[in-house]
Each structure stands twice: as C-alpha cells, then as structure tokens.
Model the fold of this input.
Amino acid sequence: MYDRKKMLGDAICASVCTNATSQEVSTPNFENQKIKAMAKYGQILNPDRFRSQHWTHTRTGDGKELITITGSVVIDFKMTPPYGGWTKETLELELMLPIQFPAGKVLHIDQWAPFFTINGFYGDTHATGAGGPTSANHGVIIEDFWGPGRVKTGGSFSVFANIGVSGRQTKFHRIGYHITLVGSFVKADPVRPVM
Done:
C-alpha cells in the first residue's frame, strides 16, 4: 500500500476534463487514502505498450551521471462499476536504464525528478443509454507522481503515479513520462548466499 504522505517528490496535479452538459465536474480527492498499485507495466514484460522511447546520458562537472528518459505508454485505463464519480488506481512503470554499467558497479540514484503527462484519452460525449442518446461527463487526471527515490540499481527502477478516470465511456489511452536522474556508479553489494 502507498501512503500519500510518504510519497517521494512533489505532488503536482495535471487534469483534463470535458463537459458536454455544462454541469460541474468534480475533481478526485486522493487525500489521506492508501491506494494499492494495481497497474504495472515494464519495458521488459510489456515492450509493445512503450512508444517513442528516448534517453540521454552525460557526466556532470562534479563527476555525477545525469540521465534523462522519456517516452509514452499505452495504458487503456477505463472506469469500472459502480459507475459515477472517479475510478482511481496507482500506476507503476518499471523502466530500464539504457546505459552501460562499469563492471561490478551499480547506479546509486541521489536525485530524481519524474514528470507524467496525459498523452491521449477518449470519451464518447453522446453515449447511448437505455433511454436513448445521453450527454456524458468525461475526465482523466494524474493526481501526483513519485519515485524512484534513493536506490541502488543494476538496470531498472520504478516510478509511480496516482491516476483517475471519470465517465462511463472514457478511456485514459496513453500516458507520457519524463524522468531525470542524477547518481553515481558505486561498487555493487556482494551477493550473500541463501541458507
């Protein structure tokens, strides 16, 4: 379970809402809620979902490694019954570090700055209900995001985002990511035998 108060990084909100009937659209409230990570996508397990991947790697003046990773992921997140309000979940993206590691070294991440964007969504504004055509409210939101934190990694790391969707016919199709990492190569911890 992820506690909002313990999240790494700043909580930044980005939302897109459309409203065909000029009624007020409510914003989801993730305050003081524990949300279980329910959707996980990884570049190794789900390579077909990752699109337009790019990266840079350079060394800073003080000898640190500066890495930027960008791309988009097809998530096709939809509202689930009961309909009304917002359906929300925590999204986890497991990303690979596309860099060469010196022998016997791992990357110790000292600083991180994740950013997520809404790259595509669909909402049928005039859905057909039991009584004929109806107007519908639609919305998608990225409430906040965080990770990876101060970790040592030999090749992959995870970042997280609390996302939501509103509207029975709404699909949050694609999410974009831009991750900046600063770290140092350090000696890998010895592998201890399992007894």
